[in-house]
Amino acid sequence: MNKGLKTALATIALAQFLKIPIKQAETGRWDWRLFFETGGMPSSHSAGVSSLATFIALERGMKTVDFALAALFGLIVMYDAQGVRRQAGELALRLNELAEEVKKLEDDPEQDVYKKRQQQLRTRLGHQPIEVIGGALLGIATGAFSHWLCRRRRAL
């Protein structure tokens, strides 16, 4: 498999895993389901595209078309993660609140809103800017580390 692709996929997995202890430090409880969730710190999307762009920049150079494509793709992904997807998450949060208000207004004891949480819209779709930056920094570090490992193996 392509070393740049391996680097990006490993970085995405690492970012997803790091969400678990970071959230545990905030809340005091472990939630292993976060590995499969979107949103949160660090952004795995940002980490993955940043690691790929960094690996390509160090491997082939910043003046190559390869790096230009990876960098532009990465910028679009990061913008989308903290812009469009975050706005969709905030909209979903408000829609869920409205649904709860409607259920309360109906005054139907059989319609317990809190028991139907799984039917609500997903609100953790996007990222805060700090989560995107955190993912980008993680990606730059893992991309540089992966390139260093590849160079070291070639030298042996």
UniProtKB/TrEMBL annotation:
Keywords: Coiled coil, Membrane, Transmembrane, Transmembrane helix
Record has ATP-binding as a keyword: no
InterPro entries: DUF212
Species this chain originates from: Geobacillus genomosp. 3
Protein name, per record: Acid phosphatase
Transmembrane segments annotated in the record for this chain: 132-150
Coiled-coil portions: 81-108
Coiled coil listed as a keyword: yes
